[in-house]
Amino acid sequence: MPSGIKPGLNPLVSTGTSTLDALLSPTAGLPVSSSLLIEEDGTGNYGGVILRQYIAEGVVQGDKVWIGGIGQQWWRGVPALSKEEKAKLGSDAVREVGEKMKIAWRYGVHDASTPVDFGRDAFPGFCHSFELSEQMAFPGPDQVVFSPPPATSGNPFKPILESILTFFDRVAKSKPVRLVLPDLLNPHVYGPQSTSPSNVLQFLHTLMALIHAHKYATLVLSLSTSFYPRSNPLISWIEHLCSYVIQLCPLPRPPPSSTIKHPQGLVFVHKGGLMLREMAYRVGRHGMVLEEWSLPPLEDEAPRVKQGFVIETDSGNVGIRASPISGVPKKDLEF
Questions:
Q1: Which of 35, 165, 224, 282 sits in a 20 to 30 Å window from 104, CA-based?
Q2: Average pLDDT per run of 10 along the chain, which is 335 residues long?
Q3: Domain residue spans in the chain?
Q4: Cα separation of 59 and 205, whole Å?
């Protein structure tokens, strides 16, 4: 089994975002021969963070990477490994445990009665953490290939498709492959002909066929629902072709004086996935994090009334007085 592949009935790769891995499948990861579409409202480009972490994870695992439609300047922002991960990669013990886990899963050498933890600790080396403030060095064209830009006349996807066909011809069937299509159909990148169903759907059909033909290929693509709403029939067709579809919807910015950590937006799973609760996303030092979402408490809320008493906070001292509606004399509250 190649490095970075989690063995099982459906082998998995990591997206480079552990919380997203947990959202996609019960055993945490993106199944091989599948595709993930990330839709995003607004101009925050949080989807770009997920795509870059997916690419960074692939580089660390030694996978072959293809990036379509966007120039090499897109590489800026691909995060480097965190210091903690660099220290782990230098440990022979961690690598040894990882090999033992692979052998156990390959030959079924585990106790079926014992629940299996599919987290990072259970399968070391599957998903890494990154440092957004650090730039990953470009590994070179032998590992990462950029396609030409879309054509300005005729079928805009022709040079991109020719690039991906050449890429697959040069990659061994047993080598994991990661494909990325950032900002698909973005008017700043793609011409008007790109939205013709005969062009874009034929291109995606061919791309999906190539993914299914390769043993360890996965695809992650992003699309702006501000340019192309989900009510657009073309977007419905694109969603139909993809294995997983999630949408990132930004929340209003909190006031500058806020001391509470607010999430940047909400996550909606439209196809596939395991979302049982409302989810939100937040970008921190180590990249994108998906978490259960709940409304935060109000910072300047009025005094809270509970069982006829008002709870007051004054300079760190908590006092209790009678509520005007409680009917309880103040003397009965003195201790």
A1: 35
A2: 86 94 92 96 89 96 95 93 78 45 41 37 79 93 96 94 96 95 94 94 96 95 95 96 95 68 87 81 87 65 42 41 44 43
A3: 12-292, 304-333
A4: 26
Q: What is the pLDDT of residue 100?
A: 41
Sign of CA dihedral 176, 220, 49, 249: negative
Q: Please state, for a pLDDT cut of 70, what percent of the chain lies above it.
A: 74
Task: Confirm if 48 and 39 have CB atoms less than 8 A apart.
Answer: no
The CB-based long-range contact list for 298-306 (8 Å cut-off, 24+ gap) reads 299/258, 299/259, 299/260
Residue 146: half-sphere exposure toward Cβ, Cα within 13 Å: 14
Q: Report CA 266 to chain centroid distance, whole Å.
A: 13
pLDDT in tens, 235-270: 999 999 999 999 999 988 766 665 566 788 999 999
First to last CA, the chain: 70
Return the CATH class of domain 12-292. alpha beta
Please give the C-alpha separations between residue 65 and each of 41, 134, 136, 158, 232, in angstroms, as whole numbers. 27, 20, 14, 19, 31
Is residue 244 within 8 A of residue 37, CB to CB? The reply is yes
76 vs 330: CA distance, rounded Å: 65
Length of the chain: 335
CB 250 within 8 A of CB 264: yes
- Contact between 232 and 245 (Cβ < 8 Å): no
Token pair 């022709």 is found at: 158
Residue 190 tokens, joined: 């793609």
56 phi and psi angles, rounded to 5 deg: -60, -40
